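Figure 2 data, in text form.
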Amino acid sequence: MSLHSIATAGLRTVDQISYRHDLRFHRNQNGLAVTLALNSSPLPGAPVVDDKGAFIGFISEFDILNVLESGRELTQLTAEEMMVQDHVAIQESATLKEAVQLMKHQHVLVLPVERNGVIVGCISRRDLLQAWIGLGFGPNVCWPSDT
């Protein structure tokens, strides 16, 4: 079976990706704590959520560098004060193709994944690439036979 046949075999949705990054920041989380968490993550950014888990913004490494460059003190800021009000997210039921297109058109490296208005995780370009070629899927995926 070719990689093309794997990618077009159906059952290709974001919710099938078995590994999602759990990194997200609460709006009142301290800026230094955000920086340390992001620095120890493989992701270059993560969503900021409100008390109900709804997506309100995004913090990237670049956003933190902008804060540092401006001379502001990370310990005196919250995630909400450092975030950009970027609401690029994808529904869990979206196809991998839709996720790739959204990342490409919005120029993002990380996509927050939503279910019923709540962030349930994030996926990266690498996650999409691995899922597209058949790596990183959950146990409920039915693969086509090698005929």
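Caption note: The radius of gyration is 17 Å.
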